[in-house]
Amino acid sequence: MSIETSILEQIKKSETIIIHRHQRPDPDAYGSQCGLAAIIRNSFPTKKVYQVGENVHGLAWIAEQEEIEDDIYKDALVIVTDTANQPRIDDKRYMNGHYLIKIDHHPNEDPYGDICWVNTAASSCSEMIVDLVNAAAGELIIPDDAARMLYAGIIGDTGRFMYDATTPHTMCVAAQLMRYNFSATKINQKLDSIVLPVARLAAYVYENMTLTESGAAYIVLAREVMEQFAIKDASTAPIVPLMGKIIGVKCWTILVQQKDGSFRLRIRSKGPVINELAKEYSGGGHPLASGAFMPDAEKIPEYIKKLDAIAASYDDQTGESNE
User: Fold this and answer.
1) What GO molecular-function term can you cite, just one (predicted)?
2) Please, where in the chain does CATH 3.90.1640.10 lie?
3) CATH 3.10.310.30 domain extents, the chain
4) For 25, which of 29, 156, 256, 317 could close a Cys bridge (C-beta 3.0–4.6 Å)?
5) CATH no., domain 196-321
């Protein structure tokens, strides 16, 4: 029995299904979680299906999260999408169900759950949800709204098909979803649009970033800068790709100071592997897209030195590390 079939069997035998995703969600977290919920509701109308977690204003156009009582978890199937490790799961009640399934496309360093389906070759968890439907041989049916959510998730995690994780299979899945009744153009435009404060912050990033001779770029966004532009950390996602657009930049990091003085690191790369560096700073993720954390500014110089070393060791021509 394939792992997809095992997941389908658990869905079919469960009357209550609760779907979680990671904290500080992105479009793929929302799309895979809420898209799967919509698919199960459409395919099995008598089942009780819930999507839980903190509501994020900027992603409300994809879907809304639900508040449920603790006792609903009794005998429930819990599915967690797009979440590599347990500390990042939004809503810690995920352990209160009868059965737990992990569906994810990040490196499987925390293989939790009774079923753990991880495909690191997938562009996104939303792509995996479509694969699950296709493997179900007609027992799972995608409604139009679920197709919209899943397409948004794929677009979000591939940077509109610009990142290395985009494969021929990704394009086939996207084409399959585009046959449903929603506007792919509007979703592309939505994910490419920014509000005026973010546009002004983008200009600040370009004006104040540092680029080393080795091709490592970085900027530290202190609290006073965030307050100056009236920007919250959750709204900084559109500026993350900016430094990567510059010729000569190999890898880069945006360090955003939080209210408690700590820093959230958004680390990206056009070739050098950076997730091992992220692990050194309480983080992790994909080889070319990771996140990390620092309790204060003390270790920033050390971190930048290591990022620069990674860039210096990478050969743009061969795509290999010189170490």
Assistant:
1) nucleic acid binding
2) 3-192
3) 196-321
4) 29
5) 3.10.310.30
C-alpha pair distances (Å), 313 with each of 277, 289, 318: 14, 18, 12
Architecture of domain 3-192: Alpha-Beta Complex (3.90)
The Cα–Cα gap between 107 and 166 comes to 17
For 256-284, write each residue's pLDDT tens digit. Answer: 999 999 999 999 999 999 999 999 999 88
The answer to whether the predicted template modeling score (pTM) of the entire model surpasses 0.85 is yes
3-13 vs 125-135: helix crossing angle, rounded to 10:
80
In three state form, how does the secondary structure of the chain look? CCHHHHHHHHHHHCCEEEEECECCCCHHHHHHHHHHHHHHHHHCCCCEEEECCCCCHHHCCCCCCCCCCHHHHCCCEEEEECCCCHHHECCHHHHHCCEEEEEECCCCCCCCCCEEEECCCCCCHHHHHHHHHHHCCCCCCCCHHHHHHHHHHHHHHHCCCCCCCCCHHHHHHHHHHHCCCCCHHHHHHHHHCCCHHHHHHHHHHHHHCEECCCCEEEEEECHHHHHHCCCCHHHHHHHCCHHHHCCCCCEEEEEEECCCCCEEEEEEECCCCCHHHHHHCCCEEECCEEEEEECCHHHHHHHHHHHHHHHHCEECCCCEECC
pLDDT of 68-121, one tens digit each?
999 999 999 999 999 999 999 999 999 999 999 999 999 998 999 999 999 999
104 phi and psi, to 5 degrees? Answer: -160, 160
